[in-house]
Specification:
The protein has 399 residues and is an alpha+beta fold. It has helices at residues 22-29, 39-49, 73-85, 91-108, 110-123, 137-152, 167-179, 222-235, 253-259, 291-307, 311-328, 332-346, 352-360, 364-375, 391-397; strands at residues 2-8, 52-57, 62-68, 124-126, 158-163, 192-194, 197-201, 207-216, 237-239, 265-274, 278-287, 380-384. It folds into two domains: 2-179, Metalloenzyme, LuxS/M16 peptidase-like (Cytochrome Bc1 Complex, Chain A, domain 1), CATH 3.30.830.10; 196-397, Metalloenzyme, LuxS/M16 peptidase-like (Cytochrome Bc1 Complex, Chain A, domain 1). The chain contains 15 helices and twelve strands. The chain has a six-stranded mixed beta sheet, with helices on both faces. It has a four-stranded antiparallel beta sheet with strand order 2-3-1-5, with helices on both faces. Strand 2 (52-57) and strand 3 (62-68) form a beta hairpin. The termini are far apart.
């Protein structure tokens, strides 16, 4: 199998005003119809070559990907580039996209949506505060969506990559297609500033808390980003009901120190989201306790990890991360996606050995220092359920 991926510098970070929700809409229009292909023709062509296609909008990228047998790479690439460059923006496609956007929001759940939105909107000022999920189709309409697409989907804003395909042959195949693209919007990147803050929702189906902090420099500093990934693996966690252990991490700190000790906690997980110049990391916890008590646990575990880590647990986390990296890079689709994004971010491919070297260089002291740096930033608190404390009270818990 081969995989072809296109990473476009687009996403909710680039949305404002009438364009809010455009990325989510474009995700749900992708691979349904183009200006050159009806829905029926597109589906039949994809089926004929055995292609599996998907698009995903995030805060800083929209990625389009096709996985296909190697013999059909040329046909798949042409379909992919047609989808990226020429989406059909008409009444019917917008109607279908609107229904899919609403279905996505429904699957996410009201509490999850509230937490994801507010961790960013309270944690940041600027571009990263823009909600990831939206449904602007009804408000933005065809003209606004077309303008957003034209501004973000230019050749200067995208990287086309492939895995399982000879490089020179792929360049020769793609170059004429890419040459037909416009330049896209130029100018400075939208700015974001981490500020911290709090959001509370008193009425919720169950008590849930997210406690987050900023990780400086985001993915632009590869070594610091690797430290945060190791911390994520080390802290681990999951749901107490998960088959085989929560998050399959039965040696993780949050499993051993929280889920195994407190039957009133149903889920406790560490999270880490990286962006080009910033990152969010913290703990999400839910259970049959008031939200202030859940916050006590999250604050305790963050400060404990920043204060003391053993060599054994750090080495275990490093080994697990190495194993995960080697396993996922066996997938052509993962390799193509990683290649497109790393070239877009760093201007080059980051080889697996560079990741492995960065992981192996991690020490307990380095992880503690990174967590201490995060704890020095203002906390972002999102609480759903009863018993929420004030923001000042949360800050005092962390002193």
């Amino acid at each position: 199998m081969a995989a072809i991926s296109v990473a476009v510098k687009s996403g909710s970070k680039y949305e404002y005003g009438q364009f809010l929700g455009s990325s989510h809409s474009l995700q749900n229009i992708a691979f349904t119809e183009t200006q050159n292909r009806t829905h029926l023709r597109l589906v039949r062509e994809m089926e004929a070559i055995g292609a599996n296609a998907q698009a995903l909008a995030s805060r800083e990228f929209i990625t389009y990907e096709v996985e296909v047998p190697k013999a059909a790479v040329a046909q798949a690439t042409e379909i992919l580039m047609d989808t990226v460059a020429n989406p059909a923006l008409n009444v019917n496609t917008l109607k279908r996209a609107k229904a899919r956007c609403q279905a996505d929001l429904g699957r996410l759940g009201e509490t999850d949506r509230f937490i994801d939105m507010n961790v960013h909107s309270r944690g940041y000022k600027g571009a990263l505060a823009t909600p990831l999920y939206g449904n602007a189709v009804g408000e933005a309409g065809i003209d606004a969506l077309a303008a957003f697409h034209a501004g973000t989907h230019g050749a200067s804003r995208m990287v086309v990559s492939a895995a399982g395909v000879p490089h020179d042959a792929f360049v020769q195949l793609v170059s004429p297609m890419a040459g037909a693209l416009g330049a896209g919007q130029q100018g400075d990147e939208p700015k974001s500033q981490y500020v911290g803050g709090m959001a509370v929702k008193d009425q919720a189906e169950h008590n849930v808390v997210a406690l987050a902090f900023e990780g400086k420099d985001g993915v632009s500093d590869l070594k610091r980003d690797v430290l945060r990934h190791v911390a994520t693996k080390l802290m681990g966690g999951g749901g107490s009901f998960s088959t085989g252990g929560p998050g399959k991490g039965m040696h993780s700190r949050l499993y051993l120190r929280v889920l195994c000790q407190d039957t009133n906690v149903s889920d406790c997980s560490f999270f880490h989201e990286s962006y080009s110049t910033s990152a969010l990391l913290g703990i999400r916890i839910s259970g049959a306790r008031p939200t202030d008590k859940l916050l006590d646990i999250a604050a305790r575990e963050m400060t404990a990890a920043a204060g003391s880590l053993t060599t054994e647990e750090v080495e275990r986390a490093k080994a697990a991360m190495e194993g995960d990296l080697c396993m996922i890079l066996e997938s052509a689709s993962v390799v193509a996606d990683d290649l497109a994004k790393t070239v877009s971010i760093y201007g080059k491919r980051v080889e697996p050995q560079e990741y492995l070297d960065a992981i192996r260089a991690v020490t307990p002291a380095a992880v503690q220092k990174e967590l201490q740096a995060a704890l020095a930033t203002p906390p972002t608190v999102v609480a759903c359920g009863s018993g929420s404390p004030s923001y000042d009270a949360v800050v005092n818990k962390l002193k």
